[in-house]
Amino acid sequence: MIEAGKQYRIRGNSDYFREKYGIPTPIIEIKDEDTELFEGGWRAHDGPACTIYGWRNGVELLTVDGKVFYGHVFCAPITPDSHPIGLGEVVHESELEPVDGEEIELATSENITFEKSDPGLIRGSAPPKETKESED
Question: Is-above-0.90 flag for pTM?
Answer without folding.
Answer: no
